Amino acid sequence: MRVPILKLHNYLLISVQVELDDQTALQFQEDLLSKIHKEGSTGVVIDLTSVEMIDSFIAKVLGEVVEMSNLMGAKVVLTGIQPAVAITLIDMGIKLEEVPTALDLEQGLEKLQQELEG
Amino acid sequence: MSSQSCVEVHTEWGIVSARQAGRNKAKEIGFGNVDQARITTAISELARNIYLYAEKGEICIGEVSEMGGAGVKKGLQITAKDVGPGIDNIREVMADGFTTSGGLGAGLPGVKRLMDHFDIESTSGEGTTITAIKWLR
Ligand SMILES: Nc1ncnc2c1ncn2[C@@H]1O[C@H](COP(=O)(O)OP(=O)(O)OP(=O)(O)O)[C@@H](O)[C@H]1O
Ligand SMILES: [Mg+2]
Asked: Which residues belong to the signal peptide in this entry (chain B) (predicted)?
């Protein structure tokens, strides 16, 4: 299973619609980084509306994706984190520190624009 | 325990099956969205630990009940069992951030906080059994 990555101007848009097993998550990490490199993208929005669970492994992969993308010069915004997922992450003591988040894809794009201009 | 079903874990797919089984059982018992996510996440952590550190084992999920002050309480019990290397120092692995695999070290302490009851039994060289319960409120 692969997570599809869409290109919109200088941005990449990802809506995670599949159950994130370990292999899929790692493949996504790799795919996204090579796409940023290939397209010279400056911003990435990862929408997690359909994700029903984030455990420590997925959280670590997501955190790394953000950090690696930043290193490559692309800002990442995470959107659509479900309340139940947010609560679980806090219970687990997992902090996605310094990761910009927004309510939905639209606001995520706005946030990217602000971050890149500001 | 009235009914218990077990999922074998020795591949990454076993991790996915275990958490799906857990979510279904949690729904069946009547847990809300947030507790379903807590239970599924706890199972995912325990299943991944089995896969990573013991290679194989099993996750059993069942409904439990207990007489309480306000009548009968229902809950979901997770049992994660392996005959892997075991854990030498349980205090150490229960500390936030402790990891031997470059992980976040959030798994076991996280499971303890996600669930209402948490018990770990482990003998070095013989294996580990972890039991956790979430009560329906
Ligand atoms: N079933 C097990 N058998 C043997 N050792 C285990 C088992 N489960 C956990 N451990 C040990 O306990 C440590 C802590 O586990 P924990 O799940 O808290 O963190 P982690 O797996 O290292 O990282 P994370 O879960 O955040 O990805 C592990 O690194 C491992 O050394
Ligand atoms: Mg773990």
From this structure: none
